[in-house]
Amino acid sequence: MPKKDSFETLAIHAGQAPDPATGAVITPIYQTSTYAQEQVGVTKGYDYSRTINPTRSALEACLAALEGQGIDGPTYGLAFASGMAAIDTLLKLVKPGEHVVASNDVYGGTYRLFERVLADYGLKFSYVDVSNPQQVEAALLPETRLVWIETPTNPLLKISDIAETAARIKNKNSQIKLAVDNTFASPYLQQPLALGADFVVHSTTKYLGGHSDVVGGAIVTQDATAYEKLKFLQNAVGAVPGPMDVWLTLRGIKTLALRMERHSANAMRIAEYLSHHSVVAEVIYPGLPEHPGHQVAKRQMRLFGGMVSLVLKNGAAAANRMVASTRIFTLAESLGGVESLIEVPAAMTHASVSGSPLEVPGGLVRLSVGIEHVDDLLDDLEQALKV
């Protein structure tokens, strides 16, 4: 059996053979809505771009290869117009009256979709600390069909043991599926399918795109039957990305490995610096030995990622002053781009969980550490923490 290509090689070549019509090395942007048919119903594999588009096909093949690198057998990828569109499509596999177990610090947008949209259609949700596989197992009901975890979580950076969680779920009920939001790690740092997950979901807006210039989402699975259902839903519901969006994502993926190395190295330096700062009450980063999920992260992740959260001793007022005082860190939502971003989740990305059991502290600051020179980033944080 031939040796599998390495991650870095797959990121550049998987699904992206030179264009057969012209020999173009880079996948073309097929900016078309429809395709000529030779006869009624006789096509070259493409008929309408909501259903299928060659640029999107290249991205889907690349994502499947990256998430499936550590496993045998085929993997299948689907691209969507946003991460939320991907999540919504996956949740359509859950029927009214059925139950989902999710993280008790899930992303605010995911919680909003679950509680303010899907619950109205009869889906039931429970929220537990998914960093504790025993709590996940205890929350499973006869009507449970899906377990939804993020690891690391957003914004508290909790770590779930994917392999143990998958084993406990399947031991309890083999029909329950495990979905992992792998956005914070990216497939370069973590490959959940190889650890027993059934579905991997991404906001490709973040590290996969990597340049804060495109919005997108993705689902990857090994389950051929589920893939066919999801592909039908992708076409039927129509939340698909345009060819320019998928081309930008493909371009970003080519440097994913390089970027994740730098994101992770910078984040580690910053976490270590903040952990000794007099105005910081707590630093949350899975690369720090004192992080409760450090050993699990060390086992299932290649590196610890580019996200760092911190809690300031003087609460929300201090957090608001800090984020308004940075020079290089830009005050903005989102994450995973080459530039460093800073935000207060309670008032920004997680405002939708305010007043709920998932509410986050007002003094929590989330950093998306970019790939700038780390000394410049450290100087910027130092002056902002003095304000």
Give a nutshell description of this structure:
The chain is an alpha/beta fold and 387 residues long.
Explain what the structure shows.
This protein has 387 residues and is of the alpha/beta class. It has two domains: 7-253, Aspartate Aminotransferase, domain 2, CATH 3.40.640.10; 256-385, Aspartate Aminotransferase, domain 1 (Alpha-Beta Complex), CATH 3.90.1150. The chain has 13 helices and twelve strands. The strands form two sheets. Strands 1-7-6-5-4-2-3 form a seven-stranded mixed beta sheet, with helices on both faces. Helix 7 (186-189) links the parallel strand 5 and strand 6 (199-203). Helix 1 runs antiparallel to helix 2. The longest helix has 19 residues, at 256-274. The chain is globular. The mean pLDDT is 96.
